[in-house]
Design a protein that fits this description.
593 residues, alpha/beta, single chain
């Protein structure tokens, strides 16, 4: 099954783009001197505006691979690349507050490519920025729900007279493969503990709609996240939560710009030239002069130092689905991340470690390999976890041994549960392709793991025992590390996903807050007043990674995301099957809107 989808998705797309990548490689070599000279010419003049357009799939950290960024954004004008990661977005806002040359921030927002937990961290950092008494101005021709959530903290929120605010509430949509597999003659043999009723990641294989348990947990989760979003907007814009929900129910803000103005969602309906005129006034720039602006990516190279000191706090990034072996910028490989944690532990200048987890989980074996390295590091120096958009199932597994866990209110976490799968393609091969198989074996179970026929009752029994044991290991681990009764962990486990707000109530996390708060806490625990940041794992540049299969797949996905937009998540759900091997601690894949 794994090789089937690998051939269908990764290999095909990677091979199809290889020639183009080689061409770009040589173009990049020719332009490298131009890029370097451009970077050295960055100069911030007084009354400069920090310009933020976040309309892209925001990674946890800015890529050092300029070609990858250009390729991901389908933009070959190197001077225009501006795809900063969460690390630089947050640090830029923080630095801009103390930079005497930065007059304010201009949010040019229409959509934002990240989930609600990251949105909240950006939003909170903007709130901190406003304490500097510098301006924050937002403008869009049309606001998506996520963009408006961030924009609502601005001093002034403007919109095109014919624009819209797409506030409609939240939805979670799951895709089910049952009927597809029936048509193809594929049977997905599912093994999971009997009481893991909320572990819905496997439901698409044998159901055609949500189970009652999954519907219950999803409803609770969405309600928690949506209530937080409404509460934040209400506080920033002085609009009642009831009004926000009423407008969302009726789709009023999508079709009535005057209603958006009348109910204080925006401060004015303006054209772009009027916004430019206002920026001239805010920066005391003459009408015949251009307003000085600087974008996120170049500003990250010249911003004031916000962390200074010989002692270091390590930030270890754990982003993506957890797999065995090597990882990349979009997957957590057990070998890659374990090595990164080990390097941080052995670095004498590193006095504390913050692991930023943004993962729905994955391989249980890989999760345990990583968790062991977390345990070893935590025995030597303060080890703090900062949960991002997701830190669920295997993502929680690798976090559980940390000294202290921070989560955003809208973080999706928990999902303490496991499952195993084994595809049976006998019907597909026999009935669809006309292929039959015969075999010779030396032992009773020499054929275990074959995808050409179903497992025997004994093999199913042994798999069930292994999966049940793995789940027991999981809840025992959480019980021990979080100092909770095992029976209680089982009651809040069973694969159930919790928001950060709910997770703190049941003891799965210690405190609500983003990565900035986690860094400050780590410094306190290490007794540091002055410190700098060192990031792990080491990032490869384009010359090191170009011909790796993982790089080809990463670029292929970047193109697909660019072309398919929000619809890419459906393809991503199917592609994730290719990574499922062995017992999985994986959160159900859903589409949030």
């Amino acid at each position: 099954m794994k090789s089937f989808f690998k051939t269908f998705f990764a290999s095909f797309l990677g091979s199809a783009l290889l020639l183009l990548i080689i061409v770009i490689f040589f173009i990049s070599s020719l332009l490298s001197s131009v890029v370097s000279s451009t970077e050295t010419k960055v100069n911030i003049k007084p009354q400069t505006v920090l310009y933020m357009n976040l309309n892209y799939d925001i990674p946890d950290r800015t890529s050092k691979n300029s070609l990858g960024m250009a390729f991901g954004g389908l933009n070959f004008n190197f001077e225009e690349i501006d795809m900063a990661g969460m690390n630089d977005i947050l640090n830029n806002i923080k630095a801009a507050a103390i930079d005497p040359n930065i007059a304010g921030i201009f949010l040019d927002l229409s959509t934002i490519g990240t989930s609600s937990a990251n949105l909240e961290e950006i939003r909170n950092q903007l709130i901190e920025f406003k304490k500097s008494r510098k301006f924050v101005l937002s403008y869009a021709e049309a606001y998506s729900q996520s963009a408006y959530y961030v924009a609502s903290v601005a001093d002034k929120v403007y919109m095109l007279p014919d624009g819209m605010i797409d506030i409609h509430g939240m939805a979670s949509q799951s895709m089910f493969y049952k009927h597809l597999f029936e048509k193809l003659g594929i049977e997905m043999q599912i093994i999971r503990p009997e009481n893991n009723k909320f572990k819905s990641a496997v439901e698409p294989y044998f159901l055609d709609k949500m189970s009652d348990a999954n519907r219950e947990q999803t409803n609770v989760l969405l309600t928690s996240v949506w209530n937080k979003i409404c509460s934040d907007i209400s506080k920033s814009r002085n609009i009642s939560v009831e009004t926000i929900n009423s407008m969302a129910d009726d789709l009023t803000l999508m079709f009535d710009t005057q209603a958006a103005l009348d109910h204080n969602f925006i401060d004015g309906l303006k054209y772009k030239d009027e916004i430019i005129a206002e920026l001239h006034q805010l920066t005391n720039t003459a009408d015949n002069k251009k307003v000085n602006i600087i974008k996120n990516t170049p500003y990250s190279k010249v911003r004031p130092e916000i962390y200074e000191g010989e002692d270091k706090i390590a930030i270890v990034y754990a982003s993506g689905q957890i797999i065995d072996g090597e990882g990349d910028e979009t997957t957590i490989g057990s070998v890659t991340l374990s090595e990164a944690i080990r390097q941080a532990r052995n670095d004498k200048k590193v006095k504390a470690i913050v692991m930023r987890v943004n993962s729905p989980g994955g391989s249980a074996v890989a999760s345990e390999v990583i968790r062991r390295e977390v345990e070893l590091a935590a025995n030597e120096k303060p080890f703090i976890v900062s949960m991002g958009n997701y830190a669920a199932s295997g993502g929680y597994w690798i976090s559980s041994t940390a000294d202290y866990i921070f989560a955003d209110p809208n973080t999706l976490t928990g999902s303490i549960g496991v499952f195993g799968t084994m595809p049976n393609l006998e019907g597909f091969f026999n009935d669809k392709l006309g292929l039959t198989f015969d075999e010779v074996t030396t032992n009773k179970n020499s054929d275990f793991g074959s995808i050409t026929k179903p497992m025997t009752p004994y093999q199913l029994k042994m798999m069930q025992k292994h999966v049940t044991t793995t789940y027991d290991d999981f809840i025992t681990l959480v019980s021990t590390t979080r100092d909770l009764r095992k029976t209680f962990v089982d009651s809040i486990g069973q694969g159930r996903v919790w928001s950060g707000t709910d997770a703190i109530e049941i003891g799965l996390v210690d405190e609500l807050g983003g990565i900035e708060k986690a860094i400050v806490y780590a410094a306190e625990k290490a007794g540091l007043e002055n410190y700098s940041i060192k990031e792990f794992p080491k990032q490869e540049d384009i010359f090191e990674s170009l011909f790796k299969t993982e790089t080809q797949e990463y670029y292929a996905k970047s193109v697909m995301k660019e072309k398919l937009g929000s619809s890419y998540q459906y393809l991503e759900a199917i592609e994730s099957i290719n990574k499922i091997e062995g017992v999985q601690a994986l959160m159900p894949i859903t589409v949030f809107e």
